[in-house]
Write a structure and sequence with these properties.
One of its GO terms (cellular component) is endoplasmic reticulum membrane. With 159 residues, the chain is an all-alpha fold. The protein has seven helices and no strands. Bound molecules: zinc ion.
Length: 159
């Protein structure tokens, strides 16, 4: 009803669109687009991107998929921590609209007991199994020489 009937009937009623225009643009085009963007999570986000959390699995962090699938492209994180409702680490949530929506429903009390992962656990796992990308502060100008050497050793170990 909400996915197919309303998007057809509303443009016909309010803007005098024909059934054909309404059906093809508001329903079929939108549906095909959203399905294809969703499918990118299980194709592109398993091929092109970096692996900051676990370098030994196929899923990757893919920025383009995160944009098109409103936050579902942080897929390396999602496979390492499948129970985390955010599907991404906090620092990545600027693109994560689905998490913002869940946060809103938590704020009004409709969503609760949402599971996340502490940043300590995430940082430890990144150092142990990640590919060395995306670590907080790594590569920054303010990083000490020792931290820079540690980052290089980690990248060499995991590649
Ligand atoms: Zn996957």
């Amino acid at each position: 009803m909400i996915a197919f009937v309303l998007p057809t009937v509303i443009p016909m009623y309010f803007w005098e669109e024909t059934f054909t225009n309404s059906w093809h643009v508001a329903v079929i085009l939108r549906y095909v687009y959203s399905l294809n963007m969703t499918f990118l999570v299980n194709s592109a986000a398993h091929i092109w991107g970096n692996k900051p959390y676990d370098n030994k699995i196929k899923p990757v962090q893919n920025l383009a998929v995160s944009i098109f699938a409103i936050g579902e492209g942080f897929h390396n994180y999602h496979h390492v921590y499948p129970w985390d409702y955010r599907t991404a680490e906090l620092g990545n949530n600027y693109l994560n609209l689905t998490t913002k929506i869940l946060d809103f429903f938590a704020w009004i009390g409709w969503a609760y007991d949402m599971k996340t992962v502490s940043s300590d656990i995430v940082q430890t796992r990144m150092k142990r199994t990640g590919d060395g990308t995306n670590l907080w502060g790594w590569g920054d100008k303010c990083q000490s020489e020792e931290q820079k050497r540690e980052a290089i050793v980690l990248k060499e170990q995991n590649h």
